[in-house]
Amino acid sequence: MITRWPSPAKINLFLYITGQRADGYHNLQTLFQFLDYGDTLLVEPRHDGEIVLTTPLQDVADEDNLIIRAARLLATFSQGKGTLPSGAGASLGVEKRLPVGGGLGGGSSNAATTLVVLNQLWNTRCTEDELAELGRQLGADVPVFIRGHAAFAEGIGEQLTPVNPAEKWYLVAHPGVSVSTPAIFSDPDLPRKTPVRSINTLLNCEFSNDCQVIVRNRFREVDALLSWLLEYAPSRLTGTGACVFAEFDTEHAARQVLKQAPDWLYGFVARGVNVSPLHQTLSGQAGHW
Fold it and tell me: What is the DSSP string of 75-144?
């Protein structure tokens, strides 16, 4: 039987670069919150030990797809623990709603949902910490999706502290371009010396994103989109982009602005939530997914 599981988006409510490490990675402070909107993972258990992708991505080999990599990583790890049932496998697919390379964490969320759901369906009995460590091997944003709670992140994004920011409504928009994260982090003009501040201080400051000025300078589409949204509400980049979001107190206000959007704008309205829709589903509090 095929089951359906939320693979939600995330946004970075703020993002500050506080330094660059000797290994080239950057230290940062950021605030992750989930959206009640995202992809849907389709999972059908198999008993022949095969792990199969039913929805291949164009120009991405199946073995490079994060969904397949996550499933195989869990299988190898739990086999080493002796907790992988004989013949455990899965057919895995995804209904994509999130743009690739948009800064919404779609691929990371797909990987996390795969790990969390297969751990349950295969009964491999991995702890949350073990799943988070497996996720970290796949990408810096995967652990926050596995833990399933809005979080303040430090270090290179791996040090997570659960927090409960206001659950506002957002108009999330994509400008139709793809932004390379490595290119933004290697830009010589990227701010790299933002002071380290406490969680409480940051939550009580106006939120911003240190990558935004670089992305606006490099991509006129992002600049045009932000310029338009800022006429209606506080708006900023998520992650390194390309998506941006405008913040509203009500769903109605967000939808009214979306109705006025120019033809070139692709967007959707979603609510920020502090408990991941995946974890709401696991605890029997499923929403509209």
Answer: HHHHHHHT-SPTT-EEEEEEE--SPTTSSS-HHHHHHHHHHHHHHHHTT----HHHHHHHHHHH-TTHHH
pLDDT over 70 at 13, yes or no? yes
Where b means 16+ CB within 10 Å and e means fewer, 216-239 reads bebbebbbebbebbeebbebbbbb
Catalytic residue numbers, as ranges: 10, 141
Pairing of strands 151-154, 159-162: antiparallel
Q: What is the mean pLDDT of residues 31-44?
A: 98
Pairwise CA distance, residues 190 & 211, whole Å:
7
Alpha-carbon distance 117 to 128, whole Å? Answer: 12
The pLDDT mean for the chain works out to 95
DSSP-based three-state secondary structure for 224? helix
Q: What is the pLDDT of residue 263?
A: 87
Contacts of 231 (CB under 8 A, 6+ apart): none
- Give the three-state DSSP class for 254: helix
